[in-house]
Each structure stands twice: as C-alpha cells, then as structure tokens.
Specification:
By secondary structure, the chain is mainly alpha-helical. It has two domains: about 110 residues, no CATH class; about 150 residues, no CATH class. The chain contains ten helices and no strands. α1 crosses α3 and α6 crosses α7. It is globular and about 50 Å long.
Length: about 270
Amino acid sequence: MDFSIFIPIFVGLVSAYLVNYLADVLPTQRKLGKPTCPQCDANFNGRDYLLLRRCASCGKPRAARAWATLIALAGLSVYLWFFAPKNLGYGLSALIIAYFAVIFIIDLEQRLILHVSSYFGMALMALIGWKLRGVSSTLLGGIFGFGFMLALYYLGVYFARYRARKMQQAGQTEDDEEALGFGDVMLGGVLGLLLGARLIWSGLLQGILLAGIFGIFLVLFMLFVRRYKENALMIFMPYGPFLILSAFLTVFVPQWTLGALIALAQK
C-alpha cells in the first residue's frame, strides 16, 4: 500500500478546518477570533469545535456545511495530488482551492464577499499570475476582470432601482438588496489576476452562464410551487460561487470549460 496517499488527505482535512474556521468567524467578527454558535452566540471550546460537536450551551448540532467541507476538500486534495496543473504544482493548487472555498462558502451563506478576503486574494493571485505568465498579462487580466464586473455592477444598480419602484407600487417595504455587489467586482479582479488576460473573458462568461442555468432551474422550481409571480423580483443569487466554480474548471479541469466544449463541438 502506498501510504503517501495520506499526505493529501491530511492536507485537505487541515485546509478544511481552516476554511470552516474562517467561514465561521470572518462574516460576523471581521477578524480572527473565537468561533461562536450561530444559534446562541456562545463560544465553542477548542475540543468541541475541532470534533464538530454540538454546542455545549444550546445543544444545536454543527451545520452540515462543516462536514461537507471536510469531505469535499479532502477529496479535492487527493485529486490535486494526482492531477494538479504542472505549472502550479500541488502546493499552490491546494492554496488556491482553500481560498476559493472560503469565498464560495461565505458568499453562498451570507451573500457577502469581504474586502479583506479580496485584498488577500489580489496579493496571492498577483504573485501566482506573475509566476505563471509574467506581469503584463497578469495585470491586464486583473484590470479586464475588474472592469467587466464593474460594468455589470452599474447595470445591477439600475435594476435595483427598478426593483425598488416595483416594490413601492406593490406596497412592500424596500430593502438594501443588490443585483451584484461590489465584492463581486473585486472578485472579478482577483480571478483576472489568476487567469490572465487571455482566459479571464471565458472565465467570467462561463460563470455568468452557470449562474443563468441555475437561475432558469430556480424559476422553473418557483413556477412548480406557484410562487414565481409574487417572488420573482425578491430573489437575488450570489454570483461569487458561480465565478469561483468557473475559475476552478478553467484552472483545474480545463477539458470541461466552455472554450473546450465549443472547440469539441466544432470538430
């Protein structure tokens, strides 16, 4: 038996614990602090937190996300051990995946991309992009990604105003929902630094396409449960997870990207 397989499993589990910790504390505390129970806000002790035990104060079990993250990152770590891109290697690939996971989880759960995570991502992806393809393509990718998402952000501002008028006409209270947050704009820049000028366009368009496909299924589901008419303008999807998924496919599973599928269809 090749015991080296336990190396990526161990790295994946350690990474998952770190990702779970950051996803638990950053959205609420905006700093590294003691994790707290989302139900009663009591502090977890270290052993209970590491063993994913119930909250000692209120008895609520840990979220399924904590277990899913352990399984997913351990599996992805094993995948990278065998199939990491040669120009990145296993170590950098595992670091990118851990960063992706933090952004994915926080945005999925909180509809929030923190500025501190964006600044860290910009520094990390700039260094990685510099290593992969040099300064000019890396910086151009960051500029293109940021600029494209900024244009979509302003389109979202106009849509939010339209939605607010509709809510007023329906006698509903306005809220602060945004079609696209500025965190998504910064994420576009982060991914642009990683993907470079050549790949950022397909990466972003692929992410938007994935979000659109999910949105279609969501609308169909709401039609099925007869809730579409009154709730269509009330729902906003987080775009970060779809952009992260697109970047993951582009970097780590390129044969399943939009460009590869189009090229295959043209043969």
